[in-house]
């Protein structure tokens, strides 16, 4: 028979109050602060981050729930009450022979003080539990520098999309007068689009590769194949923002006209597709187990508590997850359309058997492409805005150990990714397309305008061509 720790006499001067007399008041900030700190510390013990719990967490919690009219005992008496009597409502239950195994029987006795002691912070003081968890955040994906990088990239891509859509090869086919400021500005965007496209592709591949590594590590650690502690938040952020980064080159590729076809760019796009499929498979296989709902069955105690109590589940379920699926669908549809286009390229007579469809496609293709670009742009900005909101809500729920907003060395390098694009744009804008491009190559070659366009076989000669000979610039 278990001892009742609410009726233990420790000395002539002090007696443990009855359970009904204890002050488990969720509106009392002192009680909730102490209860949240104790629960977070107990999670650390179960997680294995610490062997024993610091006595202050126990004494502060017990002192806070004592009735206001009770004489407070010393800390030593409180610790005896906790270790030798309250905790016996768990340890004595281990002797229950009807239990199927020790893990199932290692629970507080229903209606006991230990059950109340353990459940009170989970049900009433979740904010205090979250602020005391040893949860560090993920500055490599959510840091200030990375957010700046995301916004710079999305802003540049949107500007290029808007300007290139207005060009003579774009949807609106505007032709500014030669030599005018508008033509000069348009040339700056057109001739720097290729460098920007390569930069966004490299950025997307690096983000996708990092996400694949993190998701694989999380999978191995969850199933005991690797040691260490993974973070659910970091893994969600990795796949979400890596998918966001894939929309950057997609929108730019759809907007830019006349950029050269290069084997390295084809390799980069192939890596984007392969890594995107791998990430999606890992995400569905592993995070389908978490299901983003309360009381998940994750083996990592800290991450299970964080997901159940601290994570903005509604935002995950009804905002981040749907936009992630929409972005992945856009990438898949564009990949399929590119394969079909490559198969039909150079075969203009393929649609002769479907004259109505041919006429329809000739009229509607440019509008479908514009709709595709607009959707990509809207989804891109939606993902960035939702992730920013998600990050801010996580920061508000986290405690002082959170490093989510810290700057790291890698974030500085990430921001610097877009500097070469800006340099090339400014160079072309200052010197003009011909002289600006000449400054990128050696004096053995020169740039001359190319007015003989061949869209079928010479896309890499779309604007200018390079000839051997001494440059005068």
How many helices? The count is: 18
Strand order of the largest sheet: 1-2
User: Whole-number average pLDDT?
Assistant: 78
What is the percentage of strand-forming residues? under 5%
Give the fraction of residues assigned to helices. 55-70%
Biggest sheet, in brief?
2 strands, antiparallel
**Succession of helices and strands:** HHHHHHHHHHHHHHHHHHEE
Cα-based radius of gyration, to the nearest Å: 31 Å
Provide the structure class.
mainly alpha
How far the N terminus sits from the C terminus, by CA atoms, comes to: 97 Å
| Tally of strands | 2
Overall, the morphology is elongated
Report the uncertain regions: 1-8, 92-105, 292-296, 455-464
Topology:
Layout: H1 29-47, H2 55-65, H3 75-86, H4 88-91, H5 102-105, H6 113-124, H7 126-132, H8 139-142, H9 144-165, H10 181-222, H11 232-255, H12 263-290, H13 301-310, H14 313-344, H15 355-397, H16 409-415, H17 419-431, H18 433-438, E1 445-449, E2 464-468
Antiparallel strand pairs: 1-2
Helix pairs in contact: 1-2, 1-6, 1-7, 2-3, 9-10, 9-11, 9-15, 9-16, 10-11, 10-12, 10-17, 11-12, 11-14, 11-15, 14-15
């Amino acid at each position: 028979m278990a001892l009742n720790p609410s009726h233990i006499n420790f000395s002539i001067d002090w007696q443990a109050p009855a359970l009904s007399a204890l002050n488990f008041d969720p509106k009392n900030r002192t009680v909730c602060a102490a209860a949240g700190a104790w629960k977070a510390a107990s999670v650390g013990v179960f997680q294995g981050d610490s062997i024993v719990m610091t006595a202050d967490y126990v004494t502060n919690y017990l002192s806070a729930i004592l009735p206001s009219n009770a004489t407070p005992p010393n800390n030593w008496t409180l610790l005896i009450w906790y270790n030798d009597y309250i905790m016996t409502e768990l340890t004595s239950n281990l002797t229950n022979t009807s239990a199927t195994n020790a893990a199932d029987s290692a629970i507080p006795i229903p209606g006991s003080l230990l059950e109340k002691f353990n459940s009170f912070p989970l049900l009433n003081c979740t904010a205090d539990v979250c602020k005391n968890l040893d949860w560090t955040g993920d500055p490599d994906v959510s840091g200030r520098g990375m957010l700046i990088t995301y916004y710079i990239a999305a802003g540049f891509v949107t500007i290029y999309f808007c300007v290139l859509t207005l060009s003579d090869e774009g949807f609106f086919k505007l032709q500014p007068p030669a030599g005018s400021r508008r033509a000069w500005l348009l040339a700056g965007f057109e001739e720097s689009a290729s460098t920007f496209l390569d930069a966004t592709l490299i950025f997307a591949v690096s983000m996708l590769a990092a996400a694949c590594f993190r998701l694989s590590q999380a999978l191995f650690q969850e199933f005991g194949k690797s040691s260490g502690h993974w973070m659910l938040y970091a893994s969600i952020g990795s796949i979400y923002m890596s998918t966001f980064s894939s929309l950057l080159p997609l929108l730019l590729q759809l907007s830019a006209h006349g950029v050269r076809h290069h084997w390295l760019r084809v390799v980069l796009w192939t890596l984007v597709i392969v890594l995107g499929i791998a990430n999606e498979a890992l995400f569905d296989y592993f995070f389908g187990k978490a299901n983003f709902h309360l009381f998940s069955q994750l083996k990592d105690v800290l991450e299970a508590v964080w997901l159940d109590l601290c994570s903005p589940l509604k935002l995950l379920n009804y905002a981040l997850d749907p936009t992630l699926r929409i972005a992945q669908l856009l990438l898949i549809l564009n990949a399929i359309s590119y394969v079909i286009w490559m198969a039909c390229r150079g075969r203009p007579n393929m649609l002769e058997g479907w004259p109505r469809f041919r006429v329809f496609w000739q009229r509607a293709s440019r509008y479908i492409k514009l709709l595709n670009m607009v959707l990509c742009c809207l989804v891109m900005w939606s993902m960035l805005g939702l992730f920013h909101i998600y990050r801010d809500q996580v920061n508000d729920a986290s405690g002082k150990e959170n490093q989510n907003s810290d700057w790291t060395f890698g974030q500085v390098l990430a921001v610097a990714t877009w500097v070469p694009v800006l340099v090339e744009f400014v160079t072309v804008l200052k010197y003009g397309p011909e002289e600006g491009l000449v400054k990128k190559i050696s004096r053995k070659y020169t740039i001359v305008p190319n007015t003989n366009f061949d869209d079928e076989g010479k896309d890499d000669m779309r604007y200018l061509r390079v000839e051997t000979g001494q440059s005068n610039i």
